[in-house]
Design brief:
alpha/beta, Rossmann fold, 3-stranded antiparallel β-sheet, 10 helices
Length: 259
């Protein structure tokens, strides 16, 4: 019968694999301070239990990554999202044309822009539309397409075709995760393709992601953003994940949170 320590270690292996994707035997051995053979026994047991699927040299969690709905995510990291949104709003000048992605942090940015003047905002997200629908000083363009109910945003060929006729001073993207060596993460390849296309149409690109998303790889669909781009996160983001992104040439802004 496995000891309590073995059970706890195996539970933690599943958690790590679920949140970060692949984990190598060598990395797990170093992390837990046990031998590689012990880790291999753990992985064999987890595979037998149906909790993991083995790969060469490591393991991947079988546990599905359910995509949280927009409603479920609304209350997460509220203060961080508001601080990020306020910083982003301060970058936008009068007369600019900007593009807003979907997501709750981008919605917080749209809320900050309700009293802007001489601003044109295009968006693929219903939340941003709701925030700006009665904003007198903002001209709003909706890039319609196929609606993803879980994210309340548009994707697909109609959205992509609309982008071909527009360009933007700034783009503000949401994401489910951002990691060095990968880019930005989403649950759906249609989303990652769209984000890459949006980034090509904007002079400046910002990714708005609170600290829990930095260094995280919850899904296996990734967007590689062209050119220079800026990650805007909060001051509690993992320093090693931030340093790895900066080493790749990503500009990272960390905003403080209210005391």
């Amino acid at each position: 019968m496995p000891s309590a320590g073995s059970r706890a270690r195996r539970d933690e292996i599943v958690r790590l694999a679920t949140t970060t994707g692949l984990a190598s035997v060598a990395d797990l051995s170093r992390s837990f301070g046990v031998s590689p053979s012990t880790i291999r026994r753990d992985l064999a047991q987890l595979t037998a239990e149906g909790r993991m699927a083995r790969t060469y040299g490591g393991a991947m969690a079988l546990v599905a990554h359910p995509e949280a709905s927009l409603r479920q995510r609304t209350g997460e990291a509220f203060e961080a999202k508001r601080a990020i949104a306020r910083w982003a709003a301060d970058q936008i000048g009068s007369g600019e044309t900007i593009l807003l992605d979907g997501g709750t942090t981008v919605r917080a940015l749209a809320h900050e822009l309700r009293h802007a003047e001489l601003l044109t905002v295009a968006t693929v997200g219903l939340p941003a539309l709701e925030e700006l629908a009665d904003a007198d000083g903002v001209r709003v363009e909706c890039l319609g397409g196929t609606l993803r109910p879980v994210s309340q945003s548009f994707v697909g060929p109609f959205t992509e075709a609309a982008l071909e006729h527009l360009s933007f001073d700034r783009l503000f993207l949401g994401t489910d995760g951002v990691a060095a060596g990968f880019g930005i993460c989403e649950a759906d390849l249609r989303q990652t393709r769209l984000k890459e296309l949006m980034a090509r149409r904007a002079e400046r690109v910002y990714v708005l992601a609170h600290a829990a998303k930095v260094g995280r790889r919850p899904f296996h669909a990734w967007a590689r953003l062209p050119g220079d781009w800026t990650l805007v996160t909060d001051a509690t983001a993992d320093p090693s994940a931030v340093a790895a992104l900066r080493a790749e040439g990503v500009s990272v802004v960390t905003v403080g949170l209210p005391a």
